[in-house]
Amino acid sequence: MRVDKYLWCVRYYKTRTIATQACKKGAVKISEKSVKPSRDVYPGDTIEVRINQIHYQLQVLDLPPNRVGAKLVGIYRNDITPKEAFEKTELLKYAKDYYRKKGTGRPSKKDRRDLEDFTESPSDD
Predict the structure, then answer these.
(1) Domains present along the chain, CATH in parentheses
(2) Which of 9, 17, 84, 108 is the most buried (most CB within 10 A)?
(3) Distance (Å) of CA 111 to CA 18, 90, 100
(4) What is the pLDDT of residues 97-115, one digit of tens each?
């Protein structure tokens, strides 16, 4: 089975087109090598997929005949993603909360003063 079809069947991508584009961009790796969407997948292969800045690692257990329901995905793959990958996402979330929200407009006068106080070097008073 093709790697793009497999990732679509086990519900890592919503459409096969999106899975194909991810393979072409290098977000899908088998044995630490970027693969083309037409690369065949066999039981026992380890696939690394990068989705939303998380590197998922899955082990292929069996090949599904077609797209499977969410409850049956565990039959066809084993998720061996380390917990550190998800902890990095939490840290990124906290870092993003610090910055201004998109669409809130220009910085206010208080924001500008805070920036100036931060960037100015200590002066001799």
Answers:
(1) 3-119 (3.10.290.10)
(2) 9
(3) 40, 26, 10
(4) 566 666 677 778 888 888 8
